[in-house]
Write a structure and sequence with these properties.
With about 170 residues, this protein is of the alpha/beta class. It has a single domain, classed as Leucine Aminopeptidase, subunit E, domain 1 (3-Layer(aba) Sandwich), CATH 3.40.220.10. About 40% of the residues lie in helices and about 20% in strands. The chain has a 6-stranded mixed β-sheet, sandwiched between helices. Helix 3 (about 90-110) crosses helix 4 and helix 4 crosses helix 5 (about 155-165). The longest helix has 19 residues, at about 90-110. It is globular, with a radius of gyration of 14 Å.
Length: about 170
Amino acid sequence: MARLEVVQGDITREAVDAIVNAANSSLRGGGGVDGAIHWAAGPRLKEAGAALAPCLPGDAVATPAFDLDPPIRHVIHTVGPVWKGGTRDEASVLASCYRRSLEVADSLGARSVAFPAISTGVFGYPPEEAARIAVDTVRTVPTRVELIRLVAYDRPTYELLTAALEG
């Protein structure tokens, strides 16, 4: 069973084998964590992502980490659901993002993975529910990953993830 941690910080500075990007389906970069990862990884990430696009909501694909600092070797891109009020199976799509990202991490041989709070930014997913889904999913998915780190960009997200982990 993987060790699960919650931290607050910049996902592009985590000392892990792979980081997960909360991407859009074009995999060419965007705002929020997606933009931060693309900026830190350099322009080759956009080219590599474009070659794999489109990525459907709930799925995940990987690229090299390019200019991100080691030990980060891979960026796992996943497309979360856009919140539509909870009536369009958003919860299962969000859970699939975490599950598929761990499957991709296993296929890459990654032993440590950092996740952002997927879909809680411009995609509008309610942060408290998203935190519960993230923690419940990564706790129950069989994986060879040894360390799963949930990285909150801000204090409110950190507190929600911590409460979900302790709850």
